[in-house]
Amino acid sequence: MARLPRLALAGHTHLVLLRAHGELAVFDDTADRLLFLHALRQAAADGAVQVQVHAWALPPTAAWLLLTPADAPALSRVMQALGRRFVAAWRQRHGGRGTLWDGRFRAAVVEPGPLRLAALQWLDGLGAPHTPASATGRGDGRGGAVGPGPALHDPPEFWALGNTPFEREAAWRARLAQGLPAAQVQALHDAALGGWALGSAAFAAEVAALSRRPAQPRPRGRPRRTD
């Protein structure tokens, strides 16, 4: 079966996944993460790219990003610029040749509203001593615990959590402490890995019409007979 073209839609938020090649620990320490954040900041600041960065998380063998491109090609542009900068810097530090990543980046289109807030919460909630994420920069542009990353653009759903920065930060801390249901985390992961739309049936139909390709996986098995 031919590979479907990647979903990339102007003005829509995308949950993006870069997986390390062969379980390579791309982010072995803080220095590696700083290299990535510096490359991401440079790529996102390029005036030709036009992508908003909402969140990031860097477990040892993957990079997760929540991005909204101004136009469809901008998603690929920012990821290509990020890849060139980071791989060159990583190789200069560690040596070796070849790609660090397991194929092309994956991306799911996320429906605005509760699901976009859930994606933001998941990435921020991935933060831990060995998995820094963007949570500590939420709302103030600091860009995370391990150093200066890209300026964070909080989506409308985050601003709706309170009328003041204190209210929003308190509400966000409470959400991160609560976490997401395992089924919702799995749905976020699977949508990004498969390159699908994540949302309601109406949203998936809208994405399919805009992209001219299936937006969600087809049901398994043969269709039921109708007499």
Plain-language structure description:
The protein has 227 residues and is of the alpha+beta class. It contains seven helices and five strands; from the N terminus they run E-H-E-E-H-E-H-H-H-H-E-H. The longest helix has 23 residues, at 72-94. Mean pLDDT is 85; it is low at 140-146.
List the topology elements.
Elements (H helix, E strand, L loop, with lengths): L12 E7 L10 H16 L5 E7 L4 E8 L2 H23 L11 E5 L3 H12 L30 H4 L5 H14 L3 H13 L2 E2 L2 H11 L16
Helix pairs in contact: 1-2, 3-5
Entry keywords:
227 residues; alpha+beta; Alpha-Beta Plaits; 7 helices; globular
Write a short abstract of this structure.
The chain has 227 residues and is of the alpha+beta class. Helices cover 41% and strands 13% of the residues. It has seven helices and five strands.
Total count of domains: 1
Report the radius of gyration as a whole number of Å: 18 Å
Query: Number of DSSP helices?
Result: 7
Q: Structural class given helices, strands, pairing?
A: alpha+beta
User: Percent of residues in beta strands?
Assistant: 5-15%
The rounded distance between the terminal residues' Cα atoms is 31 Å
Strand order of the largest sheet: 2-3-1-4-5
- Measured as a percent range, the helix fraction is 40-55%
CATH architecture: 2-Layer Sandwich
Low-confidence stretches: 140-146
